[in-house]
Every structure is written in C-alpha cells, then in structure tokens.
Design a protein that fits this description.
Layout lengths: L1 E3 L6 E3 L8 H13 L7 E3 L4 H4 L1 H9 L3 E3 L1
C-alpha cells in the first residue's frame, strides 16, 4: 500500500498481502499511518473492492474522513 501526503509530498509504503481484506487493510493503515500522524481529512483510493466495501463506507464518516474514489 502506498500513502502519499499531498501537502508534504512524502510517501510511505507499507507491505500488504493481496489476500488481505478490508478489515486487515484498515488495521494496517491505523497501525502504520494514523499512529504516527493524525487521521487524514481526505482519503483518495482506487476502486478496489477493499476500499468500496460497506466496511469502509461505514468507517469513513465515523472518523470524519471524506473518501474519494
């Protein structure tokens, strides 16, 4: 997974498995990005099923984060 901060242009790359589901991706994101930084205001992702699942659609508003595809 690649995460880019659009303000600072810094990139962070996190190893994930292709078999990871949306819950595992969210855990990796929280443990590796949010713990070091703050929860982003906006997340831009591709249209992979991992990011279009009901889990992400329910989680983003709860965290006050806008999800753009």
């Amino acid at each position: 997974m690649g995460i880019v901060n659009r303000l600072t242009k810094r990139a962070k790359f996190i190893a994930t498995k292709t078999t990871d589901d949306s819950n595992e991706i969210a855990n990796v994101f929280m443990k590796n990005y949010v713990k070091d930084h703050d929860m982003p205001k906006t997340i831009v992702s591709d249209r992979d099923a991992k990011f279009t699942s009901k889990f992400w659609q329910a989680t983003m508003p709860a965290m006050a984060t806008q999800h753009n595809l």
